[in-house]
Specification:
The structure is a homodimer.
Chain A: E1 4-8, H1 12-24, E2 28-32, H2 35-43, E3 49-53, H3 61-70, E4 79-83, H4 88-96, E5 101-104, H5 109-138, E6 156-160, H6 164-174, E7 179-183, H7 186-195, E8 200-204, H8 212-221, E9 230-234, H9 239-248, E10 252-255, H10 260-290, E11 300-301, H11 302-319, E12 323-330, H12 333-340, H13 342-359, E13 365-370, E14 373-379, H14 383-399, E15 402-403, E16 410-411, E17 415-421, H15 428-444, E18 450-452
Parallel strand pairs in A: 1-2, 1-3, 3-4, 4-5, 6-7, 6-8, 8-9, 9-10, 11-13, 17-18
Antiparallel strand pairs in A: 12-14, 12-17, 13-14, 15-16
Helix pairs in contact in A: 2-3, 4-10, 5-10, 7-8, 8-9, 12-13, 13-14
Chain lengths: ~450, ~450
C-alpha cells in the first residue's frame, strides 16, 4: 500500500525528517511550508493524505484543517494533525476542525506508518466510490455529498467489553451523544454486528477469554460487517497488537486511561467517515436507479420495460403461469397541452400515474412508455381478472376531474385501454402489438373504454 | 487486511496445516475436501479467495477452477492453485483453467501470506465495484460483465528494463500475443505510463541506477497509473524485495530464468483482471449516464435539461453572454401514431433526433422533453443567429420525407419551432415559457414555421 502524502510544516528540518521516513517506506512525498500552499496542492488533487503541523506562523494547522474540511473538493482528504505537545486541548481543537487523526512530536515512526497505511487503504476505497459519485453529480443527477456536513452524532455504537466498570466509563463518556449497546460475549457481538443497525464497533483489546483481534478480523471479513468502523480500546503496552489491528483493517484506537474529549472526537470522526462513504454509495445507487425511471412521473421507463418484459414473460412461460399486459392512452391529451399549456399536461400525467398506482398491485409493473402512453404488466393474472383491473383503472381515471394547476382548475380526463394475455409465444413485441391493437379498437369505438385482445 | 479463505484439499492434514497458518494471521478460514462442496461454497458467496489443491480424486483442481471461472457468479473469485510438484506443465494447465496464481508444496509461508494479502486487497476493491455493477445488471441496464470471457491477449505492455539482452528475451516470449514497448529510463517510464494506453507494466527489479520498487510505488500512488497492473521480474534471491513489492501493491512477480509459458500465463491473468475491473467501472459509468438519456432517441432527457439549463443560464449571465433556447414540436405527430402505429412514430422520433444533431453545433444541448417535443439550448448564440439555425432545422426536417419502416414507406414531417433569448432574469422556467409561447404562435399561424419571442 502506498500513497501521496503532503507534509505541511513551516520548519524545513521537520519536513526533511518526516520525508525521509516516509520515502524510505516508498511513499510519495510532497511538502508545503505554509497553509496557503498546502490548500492549493490539496485543491489541485495532488495528494491522498495530509500530515499537518498544528503550529505554524500565519495560517495555523487548525485553520488549514477547517478550510480543507469546509471545501467539498477537499473535505474527503484524510488529515493527520501533528501537535508539538501532547496537549489534550490541542487534540480537541484539531478534532473540532475536522482532523481525522493525531500524532504528537517527536513522531513515533511505527505509529506514523501504521496510521498512514490504514488511511491510504481507506482513501483508495473512497476514491473508487467518489469517482462514480462525481459523475452522478456532474450529470446533475444528485448533489455531491459533502463529507464535512455530518455532525458525527447520534451514532449507534456496539461496545464489546467484558469488564463492567470499564464499559460503564465508556458509556458515560458518550452519554447524550450516542446510543451505546454493551455486549460482553464476543461471538454474540459478531452476530449483533452482522444483524446491522450499528454505526461503529468499539472493541476492548483485552477481553478475558477471547482474542479481540480475532473478533476484529472476523468483522472485517464478514460481508455484512465489512464497512463497520472499528475502534479498539487498548492499554499503552499493547502497542504491537494495536499495530496488528490497524494492519487488519481496524480504523482507529484509543489508549487507556481514556480522555473523554478524545474519545468523543475519535468516535465522531469515524461516524463522519462512515456516513460519507455510505452516502457516496447511495448516491451512485440512486443515480443508477434513475436510469430506469421516467423523470416526470417516477414510474419505470421504456428502457426498464423493454429489458424486464422479456424476463417476466420467460418466467411466466417457464412456470406455466398467466401474464397480462395493459396499454393505456390518455384520450385527447394533445388538446390538454394545446389549450392549457405543458405544465397542465404534466400535471395530468403525474396525477394519472398516481391513480394507476392506487389501483394495481405492487407486483404489477407500471411504466410510462412515452408521451401519454403507459403500460402495466400483470404477472400471474389471466385475462378475465385483468379485464376487471383495467375497468377499475378506467373508472378511477374518469371518477373525478384532474387538477391542472395550483389555482385548483380541473378538467375531465379519460383513458382508452387495450389488454392482451400472453399466448404460447413468449415474445414481448407480439404481446405489445396485440395489446396496442386492442387499444386502437378502444379508440375507434369512442374512447374511454377497455378492449381485450382475442387470444 | 483480512479475508475469508476457502481451502480445498482432499487431505485433512493439508487443510489443517494451511488453516493453522492462515488463522494465526487472523484470516477467516473455511474448508472443503472435494470440488463439489467447494463450488457450492463459492456460489453461496461464502469466501473471498480460493486456495485450491490441483490433485484431488474425482473432480480435480483444474476442473474446479474451470467451473468457477465459467460461472458468472464466481468468475471474479481469485483462485490460487496449489500444485504438488513444481511442474511447469501443471502451472500452464492451471493458468489455462483460469487460475490467478500458484504455489507449490511444501507451501512457503511468507509467499503464501504475501499472495493472499495482495489478492485480498484487490478483492475488496472489486467487491465495491461489483456491488454497483450488480445493481445495474439487475435493473437490466447493462449485462453483468463476465471476468472469464476476456482472452487476455493483445495487451499493450510497457517493459521497464535497462539490460538489452533481458528485455529482448521478454519481448520474444510475448511476441505475437502482445505489443511490448521497452523503456530503459525509469523516469521516462513513469511519464509514459501516466500518458496512458498501456494495459500492464513489467518492471525489472534490478535496474542499474534506480530502485525499481520506488518506480512501482510511484506508479501506484499516481492517479493516472494507479489501476495499471504491475508485474515484477526478479531473481530468486530478491525474495525480500519481491515481498516488499507485493506489499506496495505490485500485482504479481515472475522469477528468472523466465519460463515462457509461465510469463504468458501470468500476463494473461493480469490483463484479464484489469479488463474485468475496467469493464465493471464502465458498466456503472454507463448506467449512470443512462439516467440522463432518453432511451428512444439517445438525446439527453428532461431530467438532464432541468438540472443543466439552470447552470448554463448562470454561466451566460455571469459572463454576460447570449443564450437562446429553441423548443420544437413535430406537427400532427398524433396522426402518425394513429395511422401507422407506434413503431412508425418511434422511427419518426429517432430520425427527427438524427436530423437535429446534424444541424446544430456540438456545444448545443439537444434534449427530448417528452412525447414529440424537443429543446435545443444554444449557449453563446444571440436571437438573430438562433433564428437562422432554427430555420435550418425546420428546412432539414421538411427537406425529405421520413422513412417509417423497413419496407421503405415514407411520410412527410414538419415541425413548429419557438425560440427565445435569455433576458435579464436567469430563470429557466420563464425562458422555457417564453419559447413555448412562441412555439404556440407557430402552431396557430399554420405550423411548419419558426417564431421568435420578443425580448
Amino acid at each position: 500500500m502506498t500513497a501521496r502524502i503532503l507534509i505541511v510544516d513551516d520548519l524545513a528540518a521537520n519536513v526533511k525528517l518526516l520525508e525521509a521516513r516516509l520515502t524510505a517506506e516508498y511513499f510519495d512525498v510532497l511538502s508545503a511550508t505554509n497553509g496557503t500552499d498546502a490548500l492549493r496542492l490539496c485543491r489541485d488533487d495532488r495528494c491522498d493524505i495530509v500530515l499537518l503541523d498544528a503550529m505554524m506562523p500565519g495560517m495555523d494547522g487548525f485553520e488549514v484543517c477547517s478550510r480543507l474540511k469546509a471545501d467539498p473538493a477537499t473535505a474527503h482528504l484524510p488529515v493527520i494533525m501533528v501537535t508539538a505537545l501532547d496537549q489534550p486541548s490541542d487534540r480537541v481543537r484539531g478534532l473540532d476542525a475536522g482532523a481525522d487523526d493525531f500524532l504528537t512530536k517527536p513522531v513515533d515512526e511505527v505509529a506514523l506508518l501504521a496510521r498512514v497505511r490504514s488511511l491510504a487503504r481507506l482513501k483508495m476505497m473512497l476514491d473508487e466510490l467518489r469517482s462514480r459519485a462525481v459523475t452522478t453529480a456532474s450529470l446533475g443527477l444528485v448533489e455531491l455529498t459533502r463529507s464535512s456536513l455530518d455532525a458525527g452524532e447520534n451514532g449507534r455504537i456496539l461496545l464489546i467489553e467484558d469488564r463492567a466498570a470499564s464499559a460503564e466509563r465508556i458509556v458515560s463518556a458518550l452519554r447524550g451523544l450516542h446510543e451505546v449497546t454493551i455486549e460482553a460475549d464476543p461471538q454474540e457481538a459478531l452476530f449483533r454486528a452482522a444483524e446491522g443497525g450499528f454505526d461503529m464497533a468499539a472493541v476492548s483489546l483485552d477481553l478475558s477469554d477471547f482474542d479481540a483481534l480475532r473478533l476484529c478480523s472476523q468483522m472485517r471479513s464478514l460481508e455484512r460487517t465489512r464497512a463497520l468502523p472499528i475502534l479498539i480500546i487498548a492499554d499503552l503496552d499493547d502497542r504491537q497488537r494495536i499495530l496488528r489491528g490497524l494492519d487488519l483493517g481496524v480504523n482507529d484506537y484509543i489508549v487507556r486511561p481514556i480522555d473523554r474529549n478524545e474519545l468523543v472526537a475519535r468516535v465522531r470522526s469515524q461516524l463522519r467517515r462512515k456516513r460519507y462513504a455510505d452516502s457516496l454509495r447511495s448516491d451512485v445507487q440512486a443515480a443508477i436507479e434513475l436510469a430506469a425511471v421516467d423523470p416526470l412521473t417516477g414510474l419505470n421507463n421504456r428502457r426498464y420495460l423493454e429489458t424486464h418484459l422479456a424476463s417476466l414473460l420467460d418466467n411466466a412461460a417457464h412456470q406455466g403461469r398467466a401474464l397480462t399486459l395493459m396499454i393505456l392512452d390518455i384520450d385527447h391529451f394533445k388538446s390538454v397541452n394545446d389549450s392549457f399549456g405543458h405544465d397542465a399536461g404534466d400535471e395530468v400525467l403525474k396525477n394519472f400515474a398516481r391513480r394507476m398506482r392506487r389501483v394495481v398491485r405492487s407486483a404489477d409493473l407500471i411504466c410510462r412508455l412515452g408521451g401519454e402512453e403507459f403500460v402495466i404488466v400483470m404477472p400471474d393474472t389471466p385475462l378475465a381478472i385483468a379485464t376487471r383491473v383495467a375497468e377499475r383503472v378506467r373508472a378511477t381515471i374518469q371518477s373525478e376531474p384532474f387538477c391542472i394547476d395550483a389555482a385548483g382548475r380541473t378538467i375531465p380526463v379519460t383513458a382508452s385501454i387495450g389488454i392482451a394475455e400472453r399466448g404460447r409465444e413468449a415474445n414481448p413485441d407480439s404481446l405489445l402489438r396485440r395489446a396496442d391493437k386492442a387499444l386502437y379498437e378502444s379508440k375507434s369505438a369512442g374512447r374511454n373504454r377497455v378492449t381485450a385482445a382475442a387470444a
